Amino acid sequence: MNYQKIEVVSRWQSPSNIALVKYWGKKGLQIPCNPSISITLDKAISDTSMQAIYDENQNELSFDFYFEDTKNPSFEEKLKPFLIHAQSYFKWLQHYHVIIHSSNTFPHSSGIASSASAYSALALNLCTLHEAITGESLPHFFQTASYWARIGSGSACRSVYGGYNAWGESKSIAGSHDEYAVNIDTEVHPHFKNIMDSILIVEKGKKAVSSTMGHALLKQHPFAEKRYETAYQNIDLLMTILKSGDMSAFIQLVESEALMLHSLMMSSPTPFILMKPQTLQIIEKVIDYRNQTAVNVMFTLDAGANVHLLYPEMEKTNVQNFIANELVQHCENGLFYDNKIGTGPSLIV
User: Fold this and answer.
1) Domains, the chain, ranges and CATH?
2) Cβ neighbour number for residue 224 with a 10 Å cutoff
Protein backbone atom coordinates (compact mmCIF):
# COMPACT_ATOMS: atom_id res chain seq x y z
CA MET A 1 0.00 0.00 0.00
CA ASN A 2 1.19 3.52 -0.79
CA TYR A 3 1.36 5.77 2.24
CA GLN A 4 1.54 9.52 2.48
CA LYS A 5 5.23 9.88 3.34
CA ILE A 6 4.69 12.97 5.41
CA GLU A 7 4.16 14.11 8.97
CA VAL A 8 0.48 13.84 9.96
CA VAL A 9 -1.20 15.11 13.14
CA SER A 10 -4.57 14.31 14.65
CA ARG A 11 -6.09 15.55 17.91
CA TRP A 12 -9.32 14.41 19.54
CA GLN A 13 -10.99 15.35 22.78
CA SER A 14 -12.98 12.35 24.00
CA PRO A 15 -15.14 12.07 27.12
CA SER A 16 -15.50 9.53 29.87
CA ASN A 17 -18.79 7.76 30.48
CA ILE A 18 -20.61 6.31 33.46
CA ALA A 19 -22.42 2.99 33.15
CA LEU A 20 -25.98 2.64 34.40
CA VAL A 21 -26.03 -1.14 33.92
CA LYS A 22 -22.46 -2.19 34.66
CA TYR A 23 -20.04 -4.20 32.54
CA TRP A 24 -18.17 -6.46 34.96
CA GLY A 25 -16.55 -9.62 33.67
CA LYS A 26 -15.00 -10.28 30.26
CA LYS A 27 -13.88 -13.15 28.07
CA GLY A 28 -11.69 -13.62 25.02
CA LEU A 29 -10.35 -10.40 23.54
CA GLN A 30 -12.26 -7.80 25.55
CA ILE A 31 -15.69 -9.37 25.01
CA PRO A 32 -18.20 -8.52 27.75
CA CYS A 33 -19.89 -11.26 29.75
CA ASN A 34 -23.00 -9.08 29.87
CA PRO A 35 -24.25 -6.00 28.01
CA SER A 36 -24.06 -2.52 29.52
CA ILE A 37 -25.62 0.90 29.02
CA SER A 38 -23.91 4.20 29.80
CA ILE A 39 -24.24 7.94 29.48
CA THR A 40 -21.42 9.98 27.98
CA LEU A 41 -20.25 12.98 30.02
CA ASP A 42 -19.47 16.44 28.70
CA LYS A 43 -16.52 17.73 30.76
CA ALA A 44 -14.61 14.65 32.00
CA ILE A 45 -12.36 14.58 28.94
CA SER A 46 -9.07 13.21 27.65
CA ASP A 47 -7.37 15.57 25.18
CA THR A 48 -5.08 13.42 23.04
CA SER A 49 -2.96 14.19 19.98
CA MET A 50 -1.03 11.77 17.78
CA GLN A 51 1.78 12.91 15.52
CA ALA A 52 2.88 10.33 12.91
CA ILE A 53 6.29 10.91 11.30
CA TYR A 54 7.24 8.73 8.31
CA ASP A 55 10.61 6.98 8.45
CA GLU A 56 11.66 5.00 5.37
CA ASN A 57 14.07 2.91 7.46
CA GLN A 58 11.48 1.96 10.11
CA ASN A 59 9.81 -1.47 10.06
CA GLU A 60 8.51 -1.88 13.60
CA LEU A 61 6.41 -0.05 16.14
CA SER A 62 8.02 3.08 17.53
CA PHE A 63 6.28 5.60 19.76
CA ASP A 64 6.65 8.02 22.65
CA PHE A 65 3.91 8.85 25.14
CA TYR A 66 3.64 12.07 27.11
CA PHE A 67 1.06 12.57 29.84
CA GLU A 68 0.52 16.21 30.76
CA ASP A 69 3.71 17.12 28.85
CA THR A 70 5.89 14.65 30.75
CA LYS A 71 7.25 11.48 29.15
CA ASN A 72 5.60 8.58 30.94
CA PRO A 73 7.34 5.18 30.57
CA SER A 74 4.78 3.34 32.73
CA PHE A 75 1.92 4.49 30.50
CA GLU A 76 4.01 3.54 27.45
CA GLU A 77 4.27 -0.02 28.76
CA LYS A 78 0.50 -0.19 29.25
CA LEU A 79 -0.14 1.23 25.80
CA LYS A 80 2.38 -0.91 23.90
CA PRO A 81 0.30 -4.16 23.70
CA PHE A 82 -2.65 -2.16 22.37
CA LEU A 83 -0.60 -0.53 19.60
CA ILE A 84 1.09 -3.84 18.72
CA HIS A 85 -2.34 -5.39 18.26
CA ALA A 86 -3.59 -2.34 16.35
CA GLN A 87 -0.85 -2.90 13.73
CA SER A 88 -2.93 -5.80 12.38
CA TYR A 89 -5.35 -3.20 11.00
CA PHE A 90 -3.39 0.05 11.00
CA LYS A 91 -0.44 -1.46 9.14
CA TRP A 92 1.17 1.92 8.55
CA LEU A 93 2.09 2.07 12.25
CA GLN A 94 5.27 0.08 11.63
CA HIS A 95 6.54 2.74 9.21
CA TYR A 96 5.82 5.84 11.30
CA HIS A 97 7.21 7.08 14.57
CA VAL A 98 4.23 8.15 16.66
CA ILE A 99 4.33 10.83 19.35
CA ILE A 100 1.32 10.89 21.66
CA HIS A 101 0.43 13.72 24.03
CA SER A 102 -2.49 13.30 26.41
CA SER A 103 -4.04 15.13 29.34
CA ASN A 104 -7.23 14.85 31.38
CA THR A 105 -9.64 17.35 32.88
CA PHE A 106 -9.98 14.98 35.86
CA PRO A 107 -7.76 12.65 37.95
CA HIS A 108 -6.69 9.46 36.17
CA SER A 109 -6.94 5.95 37.68
CA SER A 110 -9.31 7.07 40.43
CA GLY A 111 -12.49 5.42 39.22
CA ILE A 112 -13.78 8.04 36.75
CA ALA A 113 -13.13 5.79 33.74
CA SER A 114 -10.03 7.62 32.52
CA SER A 115 -9.23 4.55 30.41
CA ALA A 116 -12.56 5.03 28.59
CA SER A 117 -11.80 8.60 27.56
CA ALA A 118 -8.12 7.83 26.87
CA TYR A 119 -8.56 4.79 24.63
CA SER A 120 -11.54 6.24 22.79
CA ALA A 121 -9.41 9.31 21.98
CA LEU A 122 -6.54 7.07 20.87
CA ALA A 123 -8.80 4.97 18.64
CA LEU A 124 -10.35 8.05 17.05
CA ASN A 125 -6.88 9.45 16.35
CA LEU A 126 -5.78 6.16 14.79
CA CYS A 127 -8.81 6.18 12.48
CA THR A 128 -8.20 9.81 11.50
CA LEU A 129 -4.52 9.20 10.81
CA HIS A 130 -5.40 6.05 8.87
CA GLU A 131 -7.57 8.03 6.47
CA ALA A 132 -4.90 10.74 6.06
CA ILE A 133 -1.99 8.33 5.57
CA THR A 134 -3.67 5.71 3.35
CA GLY A 135 -6.12 7.91 1.49
CA GLU A 136 -8.87 5.45 2.38
CA SER A 137 -12.20 6.62 3.78
CA LEU A 138 -13.44 4.40 6.58
CA PRO A 139 -17.09 3.65 5.73
CA HIS A 140 -18.03 3.10 9.38
CA PHE A 141 -15.61 5.49 11.05
CA PHE A 142 -17.08 5.61 14.55
CA GLN A 143 -17.93 1.92 14.60
CA THR A 144 -14.31 1.15 13.71
CA ALA A 145 -13.11 3.53 16.42
CA SER A 146 -15.47 1.89 18.91
CA TYR A 147 -14.09 -1.55 18.00
CA TRP A 148 -10.49 -0.48 18.58
CA ALA A 149 -11.28 1.53 21.69
CA ARG A 150 -12.74 -1.69 23.11
CA ILE A 151 -9.45 -3.50 22.54
CA GLY A 152 -7.73 -0.94 24.76
CA SER A 153 -10.43 -0.75 27.44
CA GLY A 154 -13.88 -2.31 27.23
CA SER A 155 -15.85 0.70 28.45
CA ALA A 156 -13.97 2.96 26.02
CA CYS A 157 -16.07 1.66 23.13
CA ARG A 158 -19.07 3.54 24.58
CA SER A 159 -17.20 6.87 24.67
CA VAL A 160 -16.96 7.37 20.90
CA TYR A 161 -20.59 8.50 20.88
CA GLY A 162 -22.51 11.10 22.88
CA GLY A 163 -25.69 10.49 24.86
CA TYR A 164 -26.84 6.98 25.79
CA ASN A 165 -24.88 4.01 24.46
CA ALA A 166 -25.08 0.24 24.71
CA TRP A 167 -22.33 -2.34 24.38
CA GLY A 168 -22.93 -6.07 24.23
CA GLU A 169 -25.52 -8.14 22.41
CA SER A 170 -29.04 -7.87 23.79
CA LYS A 171 -32.37 -8.88 22.29
CA SER A 172 -33.89 -5.63 23.53
CA ILE A 173 -31.41 -3.38 21.66
CA ALA A 174 -31.48 -3.37 17.86
CA GLY A 175 -28.02 -3.61 16.29
CA SER A 176 -26.28 -4.27 19.61
CA HIS A 177 -22.93 -6.04 19.35
CA ASP A 178 -20.21 -7.49 21.56
CA GLU A 179 -17.41 -5.91 19.51
CA TYR A 180 -18.52 -2.27 19.46
CA ALA A 181 -21.05 0.06 21.05
CA VAL A 182 -24.22 1.49 19.51
CA ASN A 183 -26.04 4.72 20.28
CA ILE A 184 -29.58 4.36 21.65
CA ASP A 185 -30.64 8.01 21.97
CA THR A 186 -33.69 7.47 19.77
CA GLU A 187 -35.04 5.05 22.41
CA VAL A 188 -34.74 7.52 25.29
CA HIS A 189 -37.67 9.49 26.73
CA PRO A 190 -37.24 13.29 27.05
CA HIS A 191 -37.25 12.89 30.87
CA PHE A 192 -33.78 11.37 30.62
CA LYS A 193 -32.28 13.68 27.98
CA ASN A 194 -31.02 16.34 30.41
CA ILE A 195 -29.39 14.34 33.18
CA MET A 196 -26.64 16.03 35.20
CA ASP A 197 -23.71 14.19 36.81
CA SER A 198 -21.83 15.77 39.69
CA ILE A 199 -18.79 13.60 40.41
CA LEU A 200 -17.91 13.80 44.10
CA ILE A 201 -14.19 13.12 44.58
CA VAL A 202 -13.89 11.10 47.76
CA GLU A 203 -10.40 9.93 46.86
CA LYS A 204 -8.28 11.63 44.22
CA GLY A 205 -5.39 9.16 44.25
CA LYS A 206 -5.02 5.96 42.28
CA LYS A 207 -7.48 3.25 43.31
CA ALA A 208 -6.10 0.21 45.10
CA VAL A 209 -7.35 -2.40 42.60
CA SER A 210 -7.42 -1.88 38.83
CA SER A 211 -10.51 -2.66 36.78
CA THR A 212 -8.52 -5.32 34.93
CA MET A 213 -7.85 -7.13 38.21
CA GLY A 214 -11.49 -6.76 39.18
CA HIS A 215 -12.70 -8.33 35.95
CA ALA A 216 -10.26 -11.21 36.42
CA LEU A 217 -11.54 -11.91 39.93
CA LEU A 218 -15.06 -12.37 38.60
CA LYS A 219 -13.96 -15.47 36.65
CA GLN A 220 -13.88 -17.48 39.88
CA HIS A 221 -16.72 -15.65 41.57
CA PRO A 222 -19.42 -17.88 43.09
CA PHE A 223 -22.14 -15.42 42.00
CA ALA A 224 -20.80 -14.68 38.50
CA GLU A 225 -23.44 -16.52 36.49
CA LYS A 226 -26.25 -15.05 38.57
CA ARG A 227 -24.76 -11.60 38.03
CA TYR A 228 -24.72 -12.07 34.25
CA GLU A 229 -28.30 -13.28 34.29
CA THR A 230 -29.37 -10.30 36.40
CA ALA A 231 -27.49 -7.86 34.16
CA TYR A 232 -29.31 -9.14 31.05
CA GLN A 233 -32.63 -8.72 32.89
CA ASN A 234 -31.65 -5.22 33.99
CA ILE A 235 -30.74 -4.24 30.43
CA ASP A 236 -34.24 -5.26 29.30
CA LEU A 237 -35.75 -3.41 32.24
CA LEU A 238 -33.67 -0.27 31.70
CA MET A 239 -34.64 -0.11 28.03
CA THR A 240 -38.30 -0.23 29.07
CA ILE A 241 -37.69 2.50 31.67
CA LEU A 242 -35.78 4.72 29.23
CA LYS A 243 -38.64 4.51 26.75
CA SER A 244 -41.34 5.14 29.36
CA GLY A 245 -39.72 8.00 31.28
CA ASP A 246 -40.33 6.35 34.68
CA MET A 247 -37.90 8.28 36.91
CA SER A 248 -38.64 6.31 40.11
CA ALA A 249 -37.87 3.01 38.39
CA PHE A 250 -34.74 4.57 36.85
CA ILE A 251 -33.45 5.60 40.28
CA GLN A 252 -34.08 2.17 41.77
CA LEU A 253 -32.31 0.32 38.98
CA VAL A 254 -29.31 2.67 38.75
CA GLU A 255 -28.60 2.50 42.49
CA SER A 256 -29.13 -1.27 42.62
CA GLU A 257 -26.59 -1.76 39.81
CA ALA A 258 -24.01 0.40 41.59
CA LEU A 259 -24.34 -1.49 44.85
CA MET A 260 -24.31 -4.85 43.09
CA LEU A 261 -21.02 -3.96 41.39
CA HIS A 262 -19.35 -3.23 44.72
CA SER A 263 -20.95 -6.22 46.44
CA LEU A 264 -19.35 -8.43 43.79
CA MET A 265 -15.96 -6.92 44.60
CA MET A 266 -16.45 -7.45 48.33
CA SER A 267 -17.58 -11.07 47.89
CA SER A 268 -14.83 -12.09 45.43
CA PRO A 269 -12.56 -15.05 46.28
CA THR A 270 -9.94 -12.37 46.91
CA PRO A 271 -12.22 -9.66 48.32
CA PHE A 272 -11.51 -5.97 48.01
CA ILE A 273 -13.30 -2.83 49.09
CA LEU A 274 -13.05 0.32 46.99
CA MET A 275 -15.72 2.31 48.81
CA LYS A 276 -14.49 4.51 51.65
CA PRO A 277 -16.34 5.63 54.80
CA GLN A 278 -17.05 8.95 53.06
CA THR A 279 -18.57 7.07 50.13
CA LEU A 280 -21.07 5.41 52.43
CA GLN A 281 -21.84 8.66 54.22
CA ILE A 282 -22.64 10.31 50.88
CA ILE A 283 -24.86 7.41 49.82
CA GLU A 284 -26.81 7.49 53.09
CA LYS A 285 -27.28 11.25 52.87
CA VAL A 286 -28.48 11.02 49.25
CA ILE A 287 -31.11 8.42 50.14
CA ASP A 288 -32.27 10.41 53.18
CA TYR A 289 -32.41 13.66 51.21
CA ARG A 290 -34.45 12.07 48.42
CA ASN A 291 -36.89 10.52 50.89
CA GLN A 292 -37.35 13.80 52.73
CA THR A 293 -37.63 16.14 49.73
CA ALA A 294 -38.83 13.95 46.81
CA VAL A 295 -36.04 15.50 44.72
CA ASN A 296 -35.07 13.11 41.93
CA VAL A 297 -31.41 12.60 42.77
CA MET A 298 -29.57 9.28 42.79
CA PHE A 299 -26.07 7.87 43.15
CA THR A 300 -24.03 5.53 41.06
CA LEU A 301 -20.44 4.33 41.36
CA ASP A 302 -17.73 3.18 39.05
CA ALA A 303 -14.95 0.88 40.23
CA GLY A 304 -13.70 3.33 42.82
CA ALA A 305 -14.60 5.37 45.89
CA ASN A 306 -15.98 8.41 44.09
CA VAL A 307 -19.70 9.02 43.77
CA HIS A 308 -21.58 10.07 40.64
CA LEU A 309 -24.65 12.06 41.62
CA LEU A 310 -27.23 11.90 38.82
CA TYR A 311 -30.26 14.18 38.61
CA PRO A 312 -32.46 15.95 36.03
CA GLU A 313 -31.24 19.43 35.08
CA MET A 314 -34.48 20.91 36.45
CA GLU A 315 -33.32 19.78 39.93
CA LYS A 316 -29.92 21.46 39.58
CA THR A 317 -30.47 24.30 42.09
CA ASN A 318 -31.78 21.95 44.79
CA VAL A 319 -29.03 19.39 44.29
CA GLN A 320 -26.22 21.94 44.08
CA ASN A 321 -27.36 23.42 47.39
CA PHE A 322 -27.48 19.91 48.86
CA ILE A 323 -23.93 19.24 47.68
CA ALA A 324 -22.66 22.53 49.11
CA ASN A 325 -24.42 22.12 52.46
CA GLU A 326 -24.12 18.37 53.09
CA LEU A 327 -21.84 16.49 50.70
CA VAL A 328 -18.81 18.60 49.87
CA GLN A 329 -17.45 17.97 53.38
CA HIS A 330 -16.99 14.31 52.41
CA CYS A 331 -14.99 15.18 49.27
CA GLU A 332 -11.20 15.31 49.23
CA ASN A 333 -10.30 19.01 49.48
CA GLY A 334 -13.95 19.79 48.70
CA LEU A 335 -13.44 18.63 45.11
CA PHE A 336 -16.27 17.73 42.75
CA TYR A 337 -16.86 18.02 38.99
CA ASP A 338 -20.14 19.03 37.42
CA ASN A 339 -21.03 17.24 34.20
CA LYS A 340 -24.08 16.62 32.10
CA ILE A 341 -24.85 14.27 29.23
CA GLY A 342 -22.44 15.21 26.46
CA THR A 343 -22.56 15.17 22.69
CA GLY A 344 -19.47 12.99 22.35
CA PRO A 345 -15.90 13.41 21.09
CA SER A 346 -14.63 16.42 19.14
CA LEU A 347 -11.98 16.50 16.40
CA ILE A 348 -9.68 19.43 17.13
CA VAL A 349 -7.08 18.93 14.36
Assistant:
1) 7-184 (3.30.230.10), 191-340 (3.30.70.890)
2) 18
